[in-house]
Write a structure and sequence with these properties.
Elements lengths: L2 E5 L2 E2 L5 E5 L2 E5 L7 E9 L3 E11 L25 H18 L9 E4 L10 E7 L2 E5 L6 E3 L8 H12 L15 E8 L3 E6 L13 H14 L5 E6 L14 E8 L11 E5 L2 H13 L10 E5 L10 H10 L2 E8 L2 H13 L2 E9 L9 E8 L2
Parallel strand pairs: 4-6, 7-18, 13-14, 13-16, 14-15, 16-17
Antiparallel strand pairs: 1-5, 2-3, 3-4, 5-6, 8-9, 8-11, 9-10, 11-12, 17-19, 18-19
Helix pairs in contact: 1-6, 4-5
This protein binds S-adenosylmethionine.
The site of S-adenosylmethionine has 16 residues, from strand 14.
Length: 380
């Protein structure tokens, strides 16, 4: 493939360096604007191409030293060579640009920003692979293992346990897979119980939990502030263990938490958990409410809507219609995917809600991911 010298002039939303040559946009991972690099084109798609750095000819002053020893090899943490302020600017710009592209107008809407206080050592769970005595993560877009000794974004107790497992590879939970076989290993830390290890279990074996405890607290407080002065009934849809509605219990009389996986015991009598798909459950509630069969005493209700990465997709119309029928007066939408967020916000606005506030949370420093939220109020 062709070698060429390039000057990096911009960053893509994912934090990939962008250059131009021969009328073509060239994406160069792990570079920063101001870098001069010699690259090899590894994929040519006509109008754009992807290239790999062979040599950095001149380093940009904007570049910083990554902390991790396998930076550039492991598939995660692709932004470690960018100062944190620059990472945050990139994420914010990415979300706001996606909103503009979906014709969402937000000029008069406050955008609250919650960058992370801890740029490293924040993850409360990590999922590793083990082959023979090697433990690590997958290389990007590959099942090739990149062996690690520690993970810089994981909390320290997880790294301590990882070091123990690596020192005594054949003991207890750290069985060595047979030749050619592979073990999936999830390490999960909670201050109250310490580190637990799940071997070959489904993802989030100890239940879904936001991976960044400090940022989760920020989000819980922000959600609570979005419902200041509200009371009565709250729907916590895609609510998991009720993480986001629990801080609101002193304010609301009753909370319905709906999710495909719910805890077997409710932590509070005011919270009712329903193991169900959100859409059919909500439609049933809307029908009961219309017929006057609902136990709800107040006219208005409130909701939190926190779907998985793909967003509301085909359920958005049905969910929005049911929220309207249930007299939901205000709701908070949360998303961990920029495009799903922009698409869902646009659909909500088209169904007659007003955007009152936007909030952006950095749950995932050193990676391009961002958690985006919005408060919508019913248009009277
Ligand atoms: C981003 S998590 C949010 C969980 C919770 N709000 C929290 O803060 O911990 C998305 C949740 O949606 C649930 N889920 C995915 N698809 C669903 C569906 N069709 N109906 C109900 N829940 C669903 C998952 O089990 C997961 O708990």
């Amino acid at each position: 493939m062709t070698d060429m010298n390039l000057e990096i002039i911009d960053l893509s939303r994912e934090g990939t360096g962008v250059a131009r040559a021969d009328g073509k946009v060239i994406f160069v991972p792990y570079t920063v604007p101001g870098d001069r690099v010699r690259v090899e084109v590894v994929r040519d798609e006509g109008r754009y191409a992807e290239a790999q750095v062979i040599e950095i000819l001149e380093k940009s002053p904007a570049r910083i030293s990554p902390r991790c020893r396998v930076f550039g090899e492991c598939g995660g943490c692709t932004l470690q060579h960018l100062p944190y302020e620059r990472q945050w600017e990139l994420k914010k710009k990415g979300v706001l640009h996606a909103l503009t592209r979906t014709q969402v107008s937000f000029e008069d809407v406050p955008v609250r920003e919650f960058p992370a206080a801890d740029e490293y050592s924040y993850r409360n769970r990590i999922q590793l692979r083990k082959r023979g005595n090697e433990i690590g993560f997958f290389r990007k877009r590959s099942r090739e293992l990149v062996a690690i000794e520690r993970c810089e974004i994981a909390l320290e107790p997880l790294n301590e346990r990882l070091a123990e497992i690596s020192r005594a590879p054949e003991s207890g939970e750290s069985i060595v897979p047979a030749a050619g076989a592979e073990i999936k290993m999830e390490l999960d830390y909670r201050p109250e119980v310490g580190v637990r290890v799940a071997i070959n279990q489904p993802h989030a074996a100890f239940g879904f939990r936001q991976v960044n405890d400090a940022q989760n607290e920020q989000m819980r407080s922000w959600v609570a502030s979005a419902f200041e002065g509200c009371g009565g009934h709250l729907f916590d849809l895609f609510g998991g263990n009720g993480n986001l509605s629990q801080p609101l219990l002193s304010q609301f009389e009753s909370v319905d938490v709906v999710d495909l996986t719910v805890p077997s015991v409710s932590p509070d009598p005011r919270m009712k958990f329903y193991r169900s798909e959100v859409l059919p459950w909500l439609k049933d509630r809307a029908r009961d409410f219309k017929r006057g069969h609902s136990p709800r005493r107040e006219k208005l209700a409130y909701a939190i809507v926190d779907p998985p990465r793909e967003g509301l997709r085909t359920t958005s119309n049905g969910i929005l219609e049911a929220l309207g029928q249930l007299q939901v007066d205000r709701f908070v939408l949360i998303s961990c995917d920029i495009d799903s967020y922009a698409r869902d916000v646009s659909r909500v606005l088209k169904s007659g809600w007003k955007l009152r506030e936007i909030a952006l949370f950095d749950f995932f420093p050193q990676t391009p991911h961002v958690e985006s939220a919005a408060v919508f109020v019913r248009v009277k």
